[in-house]
Prior knowledge:
- By secondary structure, the chain is mostly helical.
- It has helices at residues 23-36, 41-63, 69-85, 95-98, 103-107, 111-117, 124-132, 173-191, and strands at residues 136-138, 141-142, 158-160.
- A three-stranded antiparallel β-sheet has the order 2-1-3, with no helix packed on it.
Amino acid sequence: MVNGRVPMVYxxxxxxxxxxFEKARxxxxxxxxxxxxxxxxxxxxxxxxxxxxxxxAARELLTLEEKDQKRLFEGNALLRRLVRVGVLDETKMxxxxxxxxxxxxxxxxxxxxxxxxxxxxxxxxxxxxxIRQRHIRVxxxxxxxxxxxxxxxxxxxxxxxxxxxxxxxxxxxxxxKNAKKGxxxxxxxxxx
Length: 192
């Protein structure tokens, strides 16, 4: 206990690469950052780390026998979770296919990518800005996290927020200011 409080223990979220200056990896990461509009390398490392954990779980289950209770139960849970997120296809519900997953499969499921693919944003970077400025909702919930993982059943419900100027809400600050300026001009002309 520190000052009468139990300190929070956080689990690891990302893993830094073993070789910091490997040219091929640096180029690949930069390409991913540009393609998916990521903020920094840590966002790539975070997904790589989660993918590594999923793959190692699948590898461990594959070492067990086909009819093993643990393999059946945990393997099914892992596959169902990946299908629900939309990373794995329903036709490929086998542990062997989990080992073939790539970082791009997970990056495709991010809210930022989905907003751009649906045509709500002009570019992948515009999509990130819209999300951060609370213009986007998933179902009824406003989401302002670009890395939010969109499930398959939620994909159809991505839209502009109801309070957003894009979604029929009150106009933004600049538009209101310009409208007021236009009203002032009309009043000045009426007086003359």
